[in-house]
Description:
Elements: H1 6-10, H2 15-23, E1 30-31, H3 43-54, H4 67-81, E2 90-93, H5 95-107, E3 112-118, H6 124-130, E4 134-139, H7 149-158, E5 163-170, H8 182-195, E6 198-202, E7 225-230, E8 243-246, H9 249-263, H10 268-280, H11 284-305, E9 318-322, H12 331-342, E10 344-345, E11 347-348, E12 359-363, H13 368-386
Parallel strand pairs: 1-10, 3-4, 3-5, 5-6, 6-7
Antiparallel strand pairs: 2-8, 7-8, 9-12, 11-12
Helix pairs in contact: 3-10, 4-10, 5-6, 5-9, 7-8
Protein name: Aminotransferase
Family: Belongs to the class-I pyridoxal-phosphate-dependent aminotransferase family.
Pfam family, one: Aminotran_1_2
Amino acid sequence: xxxxxxxxxxxxxxxxxxFDEAISDVPDIIKLTVGEPDLPTPAHIKxxxxxxxxDDFSHYSxxxxxxxxxxxxxxxxxxxxxxNYAPNEIIATVGATEAVATALITLLNPGDAVLLPTPCYTSxxxxxxxxxxxxxxxxxxxTGYKLTPAGLAAAIQTNHSQRxxxxxLNYPTNPTGVTYTKAELAALVAVIxxxxxxxxxxxxxxxxxxxxxHTALATLYPxxxxxxxxxxxxxxxxxxxxxxxxxxxxxxxEMKKTHQYLVTSTSxxxxxxxxxxxxxxxxxxxxMRAIYQARRDYLVTRLSEMSINYIYPTGAxxxxxxxxxxxxxxxxxxxxxxxxxxxxxxxxxxxxxxxGEGWFRISYAASQDALRDxxxxxxxxxxxxxx
Length: 387
Ligand SMILES: Cc1ncc(COP(=O)(O)O)c(C=O)c1O
């Protein structure tokens, strides 16, 4: 191994990407793997991006983003979720990914601990490790894949001798598709407040909730919440790389430095497209949500017909399902076998931490045809296993 930083040596490319790469050569594979919208960026946003190139937006922007973008984000997140961030409390980042990294690197001291409900998105733990801090996982498998006040209080109590600094929440949740009601969040905030924790709240899927409206955590705990959001999922803009960190000014002032030395600023062209999305694209996410909801409804019907256990998703575009009992082996082995034999690719639950073992994630950010064909193949394969 090359003589490099030992923390980097210990981390790996995410299980999502590794699995996806491993099965990419299977002929005629239908991929329900990577979590990005299959839908195109809305036309009016693309047009704004094209115009930005024509208008020579080819220079650096201010570090935190164009003021017009900060102002548009401030208004948008206020209208959508009643958040009260002033424009100068918002940094435009290179997707939510950089937002999470900048927030964690700025907040954490070496030796700090971060509470993390699991299974969870893959990018948190490696970044926490890079900051010389560590994760205290809170297993949510026995509580419907949701963090409960009792589970949180128990984790705080058990780890009271550690330097508990923050809790990282993500809802609607990748990989399980669960989300929280306002009452559930308020009950969690009571425990968080008592313990004096900062919250990093990754709400990148906030526009994709089905049976209930999204409650932003910062509306309940404004002084100690760092809100992460962005346009990747709400406006089908993953490749434009535009996210946001929103936090009280004292925190943002510190994060601005981390952001500068990591990336300087995000793409000027994307920022202009972002201004359009945030100003005239308030309904864009809702149209997409209706499409995802129809797909979710289709998938839960198909999985129920196959007697596959799953967590009923109330947000995001993921469905977390249990490896069929007939299959003896790990979730990685299951997903590999399904890819090779049925030509359907799903992500093994273990990619989302030990708590995900025994389960698999379906991304339904895929066309209706792909969903129908993949479920037909899955059903045929299952029948063959049971024969
Ligand atoms: C929970 C969560 N946070 C952050 C991200 C990264 O978002 P972005 O593409 O804006 O960097 C993802 C992407 O899948 C995600 O699922």
